[in-house]
Design brief:
- The complex is a heterodimer of chains A (about 270) and B (about 425).
- Chain A has about 270 residues and is mostly helical.
- Chain A has 2 domains: about 110 residues; about 150 residues, Four Helix Bundle (Hemerythrin (Met), subunit A) (Up-down Bundle), CATH 1.20.120.1770.
- Chain A contains 9 helices and no strands.
- In chain A, helix 2 crosses helix 3, helix 3 packs antiparallel against helix 4 and helix 5 packs antiparallel against helix 7.
- Chain A starts with a helix and ends in an 8-residue tail after the last helix.
- The model of chain A has no long low-confidence stretch (mean pLDDT about 85).
- Chain B folds into 3 domains: about 150 residues, Glutamyl-tRNA reductase, N-terminal domain (Beta Polymerase, domain 2, 2-Layer Sandwich), CATH 3.30.460.30; about 140 residues, NAD(P)-binding Rossmann-like Domain (Rossmann fold), CATH 3.40.50; about 80 residues.
- Chain B is about 60% helix and about 15% strand.
- Chain B is built from 16 helices and 10 strands.
- In chain B, the strands form 2 sheets. Chain B has a 6-stranded parallel beta sheet. In chain B, strands 2-3-1-4 form a 4-stranded antiparallel beta sheet, with helices on both faces.
- In chain B, strand 6, helix 10 and strand 7 form a beta-alpha-beta unit.
- The radius of gyration of chain B is 32 Å and the shape is elongated.
- The chains are: A mainly alpha (about 270), B alpha/beta (about 425).
- At the A-B interface, helix 5 and helix 7 of A face helix 8 and helix 13 of B.
């Protein structure tokens, strides 16, 4: 029963993914619009799943890989849906929906019913730390998605292969804009998330910083994004270079996540 | 169906001939009124554009009307009969309907998928309606035609994608800049081509036009025309800093814009995107500029390739459109065929209705004793018995009407219900 909403959300993600693929194949905006609504209902179901958990256990459990994947998918969708309202670039949904679905498939392998967390993890700071950090990372994921699309579109226009695929992708300007918005919001959110985490860490471990692999890697990625944002805002970098940079930076962030889970022992592990 | 369509278009008749005909028809006389003088004609729609002249007529006697229409065209086109035979096409009934559908949905146009023709057909129809030259059948055909055009537009890609060089430039600009709002365009060389392209860009929202030309007077003249600004030819390098789109079309033998100029300008414009369109032959812009980041360079051949590709795409979409038209012609036929049985169905219903009324009136005296509610119920009951009995024969009649076998049924029905002498 507790996983009912999770499973429904998973199914809805699948349907919306199939819808987006169909809309790309037959090029009907109506199908893509429908898929956006299905994605929205998937997000609503997913939200219900978390609300139910929150009511039952007084906390959100995001402590192992499957739970993180699910939470990441949830935040990613939420951000995309807000972005969709603002930028009207529907084709981005065709990128987000399958990613969310795959994340959920990964999550479903290990997610369990309501998890009663130890009191130490029930702190509001932990929830805030996790939510803000993951929101920042999800925005970076979107920035890299828009960046990847930018690189493709840029290449298509440069090579003069103006075909149906080129028409499907948004304009360079829009993609650059999405990239910009995502970096601009993602960076402060991640910063805030990390800061809150370190405040909490002091209350538990007695110091703000543990030189833990996860912390080091996140710091490295954070520095990378700091450089990128600086180049973008101060030096006026735009276009292809920023797109490429944000794709690479996110790949590094992603690699860190998996490497650290597989090869290192970390105090950041609460399983 | 007794429909006849006669006309000529850009494929069958040369321009001067179409011109002569359309001027003569529009000039002194009123074509609709003139055509309606032809004997045995029930209704007519007259369409004349720069690419075609079409007359769709509904008639009682196809042969005679066809001759009358040919005479009309012969008279006004100043043609010899041989010319006429060579240039005119005549379609009857179902083929006339199909041709009208193809014209309205722009399948028969010079540039397939162009949007103007639908408006022109609508105007022609409005004129016919205003002059009272359309009846139930022509009205129905036109409504079908407009629906077909709408379906073709929404269900196929026939009207999508640019099929002219200047429009391809607009489309590309949109793919790069999102929209043209607020964009500045620099025209290098004030030729006809660049003027056309600039006009397109302005239509789609470009904010400012700058013109650099070898003869400053011409630049000034064009600047006034576009509410833009003339720029000296030797200041192109500085100007490149502030513009978004460059259209170059000079007759210069060498490069007017070198890769070095573009690279320098790009550094100073903080790498904002720059779209260079070189429509000059020989080329004005150094092809090496294409390799610079955030610069997009297209020459006339590149644009032409896009156009060719789009034209091919339209050809494919045309097949889908033809399928839609087949479907709609079939539907129209069905509607038309039921028309033959409609009068019989109407009189059958009237007869039954008459009997029902009569019987209820006769019974009104003893029904006085009943309550109002009971009287209503009896009327409802009687009515539904009549409808139930008539339902199957009416449906069957409509079905039979589809394969031309309705006539014996209609005859039998009229005989059985004594409706013959109407």
């Amino acid at each position: 029963m507790e996983l009912l909403f999770f499973k429904l959300a998973l199914a809805a993600y699948l349907i919306s993914t199939l819808g987006y693929i169909a809309s790309l194949l037959v090029r009907r905006v109506l199908i893509a619009k429908g898929s956006t609504w299905i994605l929205f209902s998937a997000f609503a179901l997913h939200t219900t799943f978390y609300l139910a958990q929150l009511i039952l256990t007084q906390a959100l459990s995001v402590k192992n890989v499957p739970e993180t994947l699910s939470f990441f998918a949830w935040i990613l969708c939420g951000i995309y849906l807000i972005l969709q309202l603002k930028t009207k670039t529907r084709v981005l949904g065709a990128f987000i929906s399958p990613v969310a679905f795959l994340l959920m498939v990964g999550a479903s392998a290990g997610i369990e019913g309501p998890v009663f967390l130890p009191d130490i993890l029930k702190s509001g700071l932990v929830t805030l730390h996790v939510t803000l950090s993951i929101a920042g990372e999800a925005l970076f994921a979107l920035a890299s998605g828009a960046g990847a699309m930018y690189l493709i579109q840029n290449r298509l226009i440069k090579r003069k292969s103006i075909g149906s695929f080129n028409r499907l992708l948004p304009s360079l300007k829009e993609l650059d804009n999405i990239n910009h918005i995502c970096l601009l919001w993602g960076f402060p959110l991640l910063t805030l998330g990390v800061l809150i985490g370190s405040i909490w860490a002091r209350t538990v471990w007695g110091s703000h910083w543990q030189w833990d692999p996860k912390q080091i890697w996140t710091l490295a990625a954070w520095l990378l994004y700091a450089v990128l944002l600086h180049q973008r805002l101060a030096l006026g970098w735009s276009g292809r270079r920023v797109a490429l940079f944000s794709v690479l930076a996110f790949l590094i962030l992603l690699a860190g996540f998996f490497l650290e889970k597989t090869f290192f022992t970390t105090v950041h592990n609460f399983m | 169906m007794n429909l006849i369509l006669i006309g000529m278009n850009h494929k069958t008749a040369p321009l001067d001939l179409r011109e002569r005909l359309s001027i003569s028809c529009e000039g002194a006389i009123h074509p609709l009124r003139e055509i309606m003088k032809i004997p045995k004609l029930d209704g007519v729609i007259y369409l004349s554009t720069c690419n075609r002249v079409e007359v769709l007529a509904q008639t009682i006697q196809t042969r005679e009307t066809a001759e009358g229409l040919q005479d009309f065209i012969l008279q006004h086109g100043n043609l010899s009969r041989e010319e006429l035979i060579r240039c005119l096409y005549v379609y009857e009934d179902q083929e006339a309907v199909r041709h009208l559908f193809r014209v309205t949905s722009s399948l028969d146009s010079l540039v397939m998928g162009e949007p103007q023709i639908l408006g022109q057909v609508k105007d022609a129809y409005r004129q016919a309606v205003d002059n009272g030259t359309t009846g139930i059948i022509l009205n129905k055909i036109m409504h079908y035609a407009f629906r077909v055009a709408k379906r073709v537009r929404t269900e196929t890609g026939l009207a999508a994608n640019a099929v002219s060089v200047s429009f391809a430039a607009v489309e590309l600009s949109k793919k790069i800049f999102g929209g043209l709002q607020g964009k500045t365009v620099l025209l290098v060389g004030a030729g006809e081509m660049s003027e056309l392209a600039a006009r397109h860009l302005i239509n789609y929202g470009a904010a400012q036009i700058l013109i650099a030309n070898r003869t400053p007077a011409r630049a000034q003249q064009m600047a006034e025309e576009f509410h833009g600004r003339a720029v000296p030819l030797d200041q192109i390098e500085e100007t490149l800093r502030d513009v978004d789109i460059v259209i170059s079309s000079t007759g210069a033998p060498g490069y007017v814009i070198t890769a070095g100029m573009v690279a320098a300008a790009l550094r100073r414009r903080k790498n904002r995107l720059l779209f260079l369109i070189d429509i000059a032959v020989p080329r004005d812009i150094d092809p090496a500029a294409a390799a610079i980041e955030n610069v997009f360079l297209y020459n006339i051949d590149n644009l032409q390739d896009i156009v060719d590709e789009n034209v091919r795409g339209r050809m494919q979409e045309a097949q889908k459109a033809e399928a839609i038209i087949n479907e709609e012609v079939f539907r129209f036929n069905r509607w038309y065929n039921t028309l033959a049985v409609v009068p019989t169905i109407v009189s059958l219903k009237e007869k039954a209705e008459g009997i029902l009324r009569g019987e209820l009136d006769r019974s009104s005296s003893w029904m006085q004793n009943l309550t109002q509610e009971d009287r209503n119920n009896i009327e409802i009951l009687a009515g539904s018995i009549v409808n139930k009995i008539l339902h199957d024969p009416i449906i069957s009649l409509k079905e039979e009407s589809q394969d031309y076998a309705a006539i014996p049924y209609v005859a039998a029905l009229r005989r059985l219900f004594k409706m013959e002498d109407e």
